[in-house]
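Hi D.,

Good news: the full-assembly prediction came through. Inputs first.
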Amino acid sequence: MNNNIVSDLPEKNEPCVCASCGETFGCGAKFDGCWCTEVTLSEEATAEVAKNFDGCLCPKCLNAFASRPSMKLIYRDGTTEIVLDAVG
Ligand SMILES: [Zn+2]
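Then the structure:
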C-alpha cells in the first residue's frame, strides 16, 4: 500500500501538475475514477476553468473555484462572459 498520498485521494492516480498553482496532485481519471468527479462545479465555473487553465486543477484550486461566486455577463450583442468574484 502506498501511504505517501496525504489526503483522501484514490490509491490509483497519476501525477498531475495543477494548471493554477503548480502543485502536484494525483489524478485518477485514467483509472477507476478521479476525485474531481465529486467536486461540484457550476456550469459557469467549469467554463471558467476550461477557459483559463489548460489542464487539471488540484483539489485545493478546484474547490476554491467551486466555492467562488460567479456571474454571467450578457452583452447587448449577445456575447457572454463569466466573471468570478475576485475576493479570496
Ligand atoms: Zn492548484
